[in-house]
Amino acid sequence: MRAQPRGTDGSLLASLPWTLGALAVSLAPHVPYLAVWITGAFICCSAWRFTIEKQRRMLPSRWLRGGLALVCFLGVFGTYSSISGVGPGSALLAIMAALKLLETRKRRDQFVLLFISIFLVMSSLLREQFLWSLPYLIISTLIILTAWLRMSAGQGETARQSFSTGGRLLLYAAPLAIAMWIFFPRLASPFWAVPIDTSRATSGLSDSMSPGDISSLSMSDEVAFRVRFDGDIPEPHDRYWRGLVMTRFNGRTWTGSEPRAGAPVEQQISFSGKSFAYEVTLEPTRQQWVFAMDMPMSWSLDRTFMGPQQQLIRVTPIEQRVAYEVVSYPEYQVQAALPSIYRRYYTEVPSGSNRRSAELAQQMHDAAGSDTAFIDAVLAKFHDEEYFYTLHPPPLGSSPVDRFLFDTRQGFCEHYASAFAFMMRSAGIPSRIVLGYQGGEINPFGGHLIVRQSDAHAWTEVWLERYGWYRIDPTAAVAPERIEYGVRDAALEGFGASWGFSAPSELLQKLTLTWDAMNAKWNDWILGYGPDKQNSFMEWLGMNEPDWRKMLLTLVTIVVALVLAISGLMMLRNRAPRKDRATILYNKFVKKTGLERRIGETAQEFGLRASTESTLPTDNIESVTIAYLDARYGPASAGAEVKLRTAIAAIP
Amino acid sequence: MTFAMLLGSMNYNNNLSFVLTFLLIGIGFVAMHQCQRNLVGLELTFAGTDPVFSGQMVRFRIAITNQAKSARFGIRLYHDKVQSDVHDLQPGESKVFILPMATDRRGWIELDRFGIRTLFPFELFYSWAWLHMDLRGLVYPMPSEDDREPPPTRVAHGHRQHDARGEEDFAGLRRYVEGDSPRHVAWKAYARSGQLLSKQFAGADTSSQWFDFKEIPVADVEDRLSILTRWIVNADRTLKDYGLRLPGNEFPPAHGDAHRRQCLEALALFDKNVS
Question: Looking at the partner chain, which of B18, B34, B74 has a beta carbon nearest the beta carbon of A169?
Fold first, then answer.
């Protein structure tokens, strides 16, 4: 085995801090996701390496490094139990950077470290893309470029010069990058699917609903999706964003069926009345549910179909933010005729559970006389009797419907929807529960609607002869303002009033809304620039039937043009000093003599040679030579130049 | 690497990764041009060489002046496999680059072309230019390893007495030079000061010698020149006057740098066909 030299000579002292800085900057966004020991290992190795360089000590031996590498890689595998995906990938990159530091001896070794930092920046972008990700990306690129320049810098290059060179190159590269970004053809579907990151669960809707099990509702302000309407924005009471439908109840928990395709839309629903066209920008949910306002007629999201309960389902989970256009009709009719087999399915309740509620339902149904009268009676019961809407209801135990209806009488949408649907089923009326979002906040700055996780809602649908499936929101009966304004406004108002400062919270909300509007635009234009947007943008630019060939051609053309322009700009910046007029004039004279001026030949020497070798009169040659020497080397004056010009003109 | 990044961006359809990838590609393009621009506005001037003996490296001095308004970084000159040091040049700054070149024979050595190159900014690209400047340096013949003694002079002012006892006039002391006879070392002075000094003698007996090309009993012309070179080098180290006689050229006995240079130049440029 060849022993490698391990000593350090302090030659990296100037550039190492920059390399470490670049690594730190590129690692920073990963830190919240990385296991703590990985960040720790990186910091330790950086400090260790820097001390080694500073004190000109030896690098750790090959065996020590090998051992550390083994431990670290096993550690990563143990922590993540996989090595694919962004999470373990960035962990591996961080570990590689830390270990590589320990064997970095020469300037060139730092190349690898800077490559790693570029990949770290890239993987942080894969993980999350916020509004500040672009500035972050630019700043970190600038730091990496500077570190790179520092790495190869000689004695005469100051850090400041490296920094400004990096900045200038970045500035020159920006138009190129923008052109490439706009015109580079986007693919509709990925080549292969890799999980982005599963280390952080998003708060979405769950696939089942057990009122009473969870005793409080998420009040997360996180945005679920944003909606931009092409025309009017529908009234709050029409804004029911359908997600998933749950059809089975086991006495405690409502569940839906596995996602599967239903009949084509036009066979399931007949639409009437006014339509609303809008675009939804949905945040990643890692679920298959696609949200649309009741009832969607068409949608532009690929690989998405309508299930048998009119819910929209995507074949693959939504791992990334997607945007799709939908046309919805608030007036519709679904399944005017329900086959008896389905009637049984939608009225099924487990026998023996929630017995009191079932009995009550049957009594009320008998008393009401008709299905519609019974529905009204149940809603009136919620409205008139002492039922409270609360986000923190007490737990309900094994017969949740009984306990809720007769004892606690407190709950939120899930409790009311569940109790209502159970009573409907007990009385023989087909019913089901829809989970989705209700309402949403209109952002006056962006003109769009923000639907947050706290807008999650559960409501019911009952099937009535001649009407088909009909939406009934029992929560509306108990707390109408919850439906009209949304839970967020109510909570905020209460908060402001109870603490006596409504004005700051108003300002705060304004700021929040502005920030949200910027985010919406950002998502819309930058992050959402996909194949569709690109196509329409190309058409807007005047490209007929855009395809990838045309786009690539345009891309190449523009890039070449820009490179030429930038090259010209650099030429201007870096041009050599212009030849002075005297030299230009003198060269004319040289041409007239018919001789070549030898390298290193002075004007005097040339003059002497010209008087013997050329046919020009010696007087002329002499006067030109004197005038030239005057103009070129004498004190600057316009007169000398004129003299030279006339002397040359005098040559026959 | 950027290709891998591009594939990644395309796969995830991640617009910010696209930004990063394209930014890096753009920087690549720009760096390429920047690299080329890094050579613009440099003025090269030949600043001469010092003569060397054959077998030594001749060092061409080339002054580079940055006439441009911006600094120039990481400039180096090169020729075959030999490279100069790397220097940075601030605007208006001038630096001397030294480009060494191996020599293997006497006479003029010419560097008909050499290159200037830079790896700035990222060491990813390099730009270069070939320059044709009439650079030449003088190479003296290699001093012979043959340690034969120079012949006694024909026109003698007196025989050289190695065992001289006071016949020569003591003229002074000078610093010991390698090759000085140990007999002339001022040992007493050494004992006093610890410094090696050689005694210098003046007078009739500081004989001047003639080194005559024709009188060297060696057939090969180059060998003869080599031997002459060795003698001149050795004689120059002492204070003896020496003269050189070549076919068609004669340098009367003298001493000093100018004389030494003249003689060595004559040897370097000696035309074989004259003899």
Answer: B34
B249 pairs with which residues across the strands?
Answer: B246
* Measured CA distances, B266 to A197, A231, B213 (Å): 81, 100, 12
Task: Return the percentage of chain A with pLDDT > 70, whole number.
Answer: 88
pLDDT, mean of residues A447-475: 88
Residue type, position B120, single letter: F
Cα(B130)–Cα(B75) distance, integer angstroms: 14
Q: Bridge-partner residues for A525, per DSSP?
A: none
DSSP structural state of residue B141:
P
Q: Chain B 119-138, CB below 8 Å of chain A: which residues? A: 119-123, 133-134
Model pLDDT, residue A477: 80
- Show the DSSP H helices in B13-87 as ranges: 15-37
Residue A425 confidence class, pLDDT cut points 50, 70, 90: very high
Q: Is the per-residue pLDDT at A484 higher than 50?
A: no
Q: Is A457 a catalytic residue?
A: yes
Distances (CA, A) of A349 to A335, A373, A421, A426, A462: 22, 22, 10, 7, 15
> Is A237 a known active-site residue?
no
Contact residues, chain A, for B71 at CB < 8 Å: 156-157, 161
In the set A30, A365, A415, A457, the catalytic residue is A457
Our CA-based measurement puts residue A642 at a distance from the nearest CA of chain B, in whole angstroms, of 27
Q: Cα dihedral sign for A507, A513, A519, A521?
A: negative
Is there a contact between B30 and A192 if contact means CB atoms under 8 Å apart?
no
Closest residue in chain B to residue A187, using alpha carbons only: B10
- Judged by CB atoms closer than 8 Å, whether chains meet at A122 and B8 is answered as yes
Asked whether the beta carbons of residue A126 and residue B122 sit closer than 8 angstroms, the reply is no
Assess whether pLDDT exceeds 50 at residue A488.
no
Contact (CB<8Å) A191/B7:
yes
Name the residue with tokens 């190479």: B139
Integer Cα distance of A68 and A48 in angstroms: 14
Residue A568's closest CA among B40, B187, B247? Answer: B40
Assign A53 a pLDDT band (cuts: 50, 70, 90): confident
Which stretches of chain B score pLDDT less than 50? 155-167, 203-206
Give A390's DSSP letter: -
**For chain B, what are the domain ranges?**
2-34, 42-140, 169-274
Q: If you average pLDDT over residues A526-530, what whole number do you get?
A: 79
What was the ipTM of the complex prediction? 0.71
pTM over 0.80: no
Question: Looking at the domain that runs over B42-140, which CATH code has it been given?
Answer: 2.60.40.10
- Rounded distance between C-alpha atoms, residue A59 and residue A52, angstroms: 7
Note whether A430 and A341 are within 8 A (CB).
Answer: no
Question: In sequence order, which residues have a C-beta less than 8 Å from that of residue A160 and are 6 or more positions away?
Answer: none
Q: Hey, are the CB atoms on A145 and B14 less than 8 Å from each other? A: no
Q: With contacts defined as CB-CB under 8 Å, which chain A residues touch B17?
A: 122, 125-126
Mean pLDDT calculated for residue range A88-115: 86
Does the beta carbon of B73 lie under 8 angstroms from any beta carbon of chain A? yes
Tell me which of A413, A448, A455, A516 is the catalytic residue.
A413
How many beta carbons lie within 10 A of that of residue B71, not counting itself? 19
Confidence at residue A188, expressed as pLDDT on a 0 to 100 scale? 67
pLDDT value, residue A198: 42
List C-alpha distances in Å: A350 to A224, A244, A254, A354, B20: 34, 22, 12, 9, 57
H/E stretch holding A272 reads strand A269-272
Percent composition of chain B: helix, strand, coil (DSSP 3-state, to 5) = 30, 35, 40
Is there a contact between A148 and B122 if contact means CB atoms under 8 Å apart?
yes
